[in-house]
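Database export, one record per block. Field names are fixed; values are copied verbatim from the stored entry.
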Amino acid sequence: MDNASYVTLTRMSGLNREMQVIAHNVANSGTSGFRREGLIFSEFVRGGEGHEPSISMALGNTRQTSDLQGALAPTGGAFDMAIEGEGYFQVETAAGPRLTRAGSFTPNEAGELVNMDGHRLLDAGGAAIFVPPDAGQIAMSRDGTLSSDGLPFAQVGLVRPADPVTLSRAAGTLFEVEGDIEPVEAPVILQGFLEDSNVNPVLELARMIEVQRAYEQGQRLLDREDERIKNVIQTLGR
């Protein structure tokens, strides 16, 4: 296989991964708290020997999470929370703490606030939030302080990665951080709201068409290159 085929294959491999990312975005356009992902392409250039031209190959191995704010949808739920601005809720999972923008919680049998998967919501100190069994009217201030009949009993913690590059998707709406996390200095949490997905389906479908066309162009180039090589072999074999 010659250099043109190798270069084309690296590009097509990256486009295939980008198509998978776009499809995942579209599938989760209605998922509360979902963050759109994009694929970042990098270029690897190898210098040629003597008068040979250099070779440039494209690699698409890095995913980038969009921090664009999603629309806030009112629900009226006492334990539905939406973050306005930066920050993530911190939940406890079997694999360790994870970050999320999905703010639908409910008390479990033990009175702990958990999400739909049973992961416990953590407070500003990293402990599980417990709702008293005799709690009356639940209210939450914009800084995440929860109160029952005017008496505060917990504060929802909002954190962010110290280095945004260390944030990566763990599964669904959960993210993991390979580095340090830090508290958000001025958290804003709205009670009775949920943040919608920040995916724009129209833009994603338009990008899907662009990627599909680019992939088809690469396929046609490979077909023409294969035909060219066959013709050269046939000519030299006569």
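Remark 1: Residues 3-67+199-236 form one domain.
Remark 2: DSSP finds two helices and 18 strands in the chain.
End of record.
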